[in-house]
Amino acid sequence: MNERDSSGFWDDAEVVSSYSRAQAIEDGVLVDVTATSKEAGFTVPVAVTAAVWCEIEPTDTEATNGQSVSGRLWDILSVLRASAGDTDTVLFDVLVARDHKNERLRLKAIIGPGDDAAPVITIMLPNED
């Protein structure tokens, strides 16, 4: 098949809109946690959605009881690392201490191409895309 025969329907299509991962991080839709994820043994960039960030951010009362974003993030990354397999999507649960009891936080992680097609991981709530 030559180049002339391989043209596709979308070859001359105009891109109406695009939204990059970098823009999502800049806008706060995603929170880059790559520095912490490297410490946890990940070799690709990792981000969490704003909704996940809200879930792991402790209330004032929880913070006084020793809960922190960094501790909760470390738990998420550790459980994800232990749960990862040969798939691009992983569902996993993390226990989060809230008001003196543990609550299960269900999360989804997807590995896929980033802005430059290199692999990246995004951690989100199960109902997010």
Question: What key phrases describe this protein's structure?
Answer:
5 helices, alpha+beta, 129 residues, five-stranded mixed β-sheet, 28% strand
Structure description:
With 129 residues, the protein is an alpha+beta fold. Helices cover 31% and strands 28% of the residues. The protein has helices at 21-27, 34-39, 50-56, 60-64, 69-83, and strands at 30-32, 46-49, 89-98, 101-113, 119-124. The protein has a five-stranded mixed beta sheet with strand order 1-2-5-4-3. A hairpin with a 2-residue loop joins strand 3 (89-98) and strand 4 (101-113). The protein is elongated, with a radius of gyration of 18 Å. The mean pLDDT is 91.
- Proportion in β-strands: 25-35%
Low-confidence stretches: none
| Major sheet details | 5 strands, mixed
Strands, count = 5
Task: Provide a count of the helices.
Answer: 5
Terminal CA distance: 36 Å
Order of helices and strands: HEHEHHHEEE
Mean pLDDT: 91
Helix content: 25-40%
Find the structural class using helix and strand composition: alpha+beta
Q: Which strand order do you get reading across the main beta sheet?
A: 1-2-5-4-3
Shape: elongated
- Rg over alpha carbons: 18 Å
Sequence-ordered SSE layout with sheet pairings:
Layout: H1 21-27, E1 30-32, H2 34-39, E2 46-49, H3 50-56, H4 60-64, H5 69-83, E3 89-98, E4 101-113, E5 119-124
Parallel strand pairs: 2-5
Antiparallel strand pairs: 1-2, 3-4, 4-5
Describe the structure in brief:
With 129 residues, the protein is α+β, with helices and mostly antiparallel strands.
